[in-house]
Amino acid sequence: MDVFKNYLISWELAPDGEPFVTLTSQLLPVRYNGTPAMLKIALSDEERNGGALMVWWHGQGAAKILAHDGDALLMERAMGKESLVTMAKKQDDEASRVLCRVASQLHAPRNKPLPPTLVPLNHWFKGLDKAAIQYGGIFKLAADTAQDLLKSPQDIVVLHGDIHHGNILDFGAQRWLAIDPKGLIGERGFDFANIFCNPDRKIATKPGRLEQQVTLVSGMAGLDRSRLMQWIFAYAGLSAAWHLEDGSDPQLAIDIAKIVLAMLAK
Questions:
Q1: Cα dihedral 234/25/252/217 (nearest 10)
Q2: Region 143-149: what's the mean pLDDT?
Q3: Which residues are catalytic?
Q4: pLDDT grade, residue 2 (50/70/90)?
């Protein structure tokens, strides 16, 4: 609790649960003026960049930041009972609609300077370039696709960078809001790619599911269907490359890449 002590005092917070740690943050549920909040301390530059973007969004499409200082953020806490992961098991289309609506809010223009911490999207794909050299095959095809997309970007916006069913939470009163952005800038279509690798293997690889969701998402988001599929293919390759770097299982991402590659070949 020592790492949280100064913030508990200066922001007059009351602990409201046990602290926990992720790969990139230390977190503590708290009460702020009697309302549920989350105190989050960044442990990485990626998390700091995401925090700066959360401040910039100012609660439009993302959890509102109530206070911030250096590595620390105090944000509203999701207290709703719904889950997009659970919803997708019975109402996959509706879960995708929620994701698209939240993405639309996040991508909406703001009349203020962009956060200086935003990372260009092409930097994000360096891991895929390495995998293409090392493994070839589908990684090389995905890297080539990514480079083609990145050389001719369309509709540049601030990107969340990791939109999926577990990063859009129920904040009550019909408010679905994003958490844990990566803080990127690049083509809008990229932000929808990870939806298709989620929420789990059973749903993501269900026969016909990817094709159906491509139709739904491209329609709702106003995206070119073929270009969206290219982004899904590029992202799935990148995700598989990251899994290999981490020593985790890349198979789901590889399977998604194969499904969409077959769709692109038609």
A1: -60
A2: 98
A3: 162
A4: confident
